[in-house]
């Protein structure tokens, strides 16, 4: 009994949580994890017959803030800066890239605003595809003491708060095809938007996907593990110390051989009763149809015979 109490006490000192743990699913939080697209960038070209129509309305619509314009170009913000559109046919031809780029956050658009973006811009484009998709999970769990690890070799950057606990973690590099952010969403809402979350804890796990990774959005975290390792399940104190050092000193991983890295990563997964990534995959599976249909709606070939429930002001 005394050994068990000592074990739990040491576990609290090392990990910040008790050794008696339950998975997110067991805690009844699974249905409270939300998943959505937090940013979308659609690129393509104008349907030739629609170019002049769009340009004329961009220059006259009071919901659009025109920043630059010319014979075959324009830049604008729409819907109170919720949407950014850039079009430059000459530059696209000279640089071999798409003519028009439409950027927006679906979470910030109401249904009527979403329809406005569709009708004004997306429905008038051809050869549409995604150059960027941000997939975001909002998790009502305190991720300060979770250990995040990838099976792949990726750069990791961690920023700590005043309590010396992690507040933001980055995996990868910004211009890569996949860039991962994990941060304290509750704190961000309070400091940036002056909003209070109803949850005791709220963290965001966000995948910024570019180029070819936009086609693999539903597989973007198959190599990622968000874990609660149980150090004390390892009998050898020397082995405990090595794993603790690797998990708390990022640079330590660069000092060991590849085969040793594989062995210790495997060991960390084995001693973790909870892998939050499993819960994220379950949530994504349940929402996959809805998310797929949403993406399809942005790039589907459309016709201008649709009726929309908004006033198209000129």
From TrEMBL:
It comes from the Bacteria. Coiled coil: none annotated. Pfam families: RepD-like_N (PF22477). Residues 39-125 form the Replication initiation protein N-terminal domain. Belongs to the plasmid replication initiation factor family. This is Replication initiation protein. This protein is probably a specific topoisomerase involved in initiating replication. This protein is specifically required and may be rate-limiting for replication of the plasmid in vivo. GO terms for molecular function: translation initiation factor activity. Keywords: DNA replication, Initiation factor, Protein biosynthesis.
């Amino acid at each position: 009994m005394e050994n068990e109490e000592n074990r739990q006490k040491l576990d609290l000192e090392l990990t910040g949580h008790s050794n008696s743990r339950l998975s997110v699913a067991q805690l009844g939080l699974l249905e409270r994890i939300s998943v959505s697209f937090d940013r979308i960038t659609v690129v393509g070209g104008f349907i030739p017959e629609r170019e002049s129509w769009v340009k004329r309305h961009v220059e006259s619509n009071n919901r659009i803030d025109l920043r630059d314009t010319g014979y075959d170009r324009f830049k604008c913000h729409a819907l109170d800066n919720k949407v950014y559109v850039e079009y430059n046919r000459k530059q696209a031809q000279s640089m071999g890239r798409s003519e028009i780029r439409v950027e927006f956050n679906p979470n910030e658009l109401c249904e009527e605003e979403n329809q406005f973006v569709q009708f004004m811009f997306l429905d008038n484009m051809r050869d549409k595809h995604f150059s960027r998709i941000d997939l975001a999970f909002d998790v009502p769990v305190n991720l300060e003491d979770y250990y995040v690890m990838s099976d792949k070799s990726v750069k990791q950057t961690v920023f700590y708060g005043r309590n010396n606990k992690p507040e933001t973690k980055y995996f990868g590099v910004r211009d890569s095809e996949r860039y991962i952010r994990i941060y304290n969403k509750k704190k961000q809402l309070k400091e940036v938007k002056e909003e209070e979350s109803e949850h005791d804890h709220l963290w965001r796990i966000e995948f910024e996907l570019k180029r070819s990774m936009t086609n693999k959005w539903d597989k973007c975290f198959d190599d990622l593990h968000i874990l609660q390792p149980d150090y004390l399940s390892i009998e050898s104190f020397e082995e405990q110390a090595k794993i603790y050092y690797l998990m708390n000193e990022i640079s330590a991983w660069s000092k060991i051989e590849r085969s040793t890295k594989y062995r210790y990563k495997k060991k960390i997964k084995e001693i973790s009763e909870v892998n939050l990534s499993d819960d994220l995959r379950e949530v994504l599976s349940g929402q996959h149809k809805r998310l797929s249909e949403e993406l399809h709606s942005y790039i589907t070939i459309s016709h201008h015979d649709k009726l929309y429930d908004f006033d198209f002001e000129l």
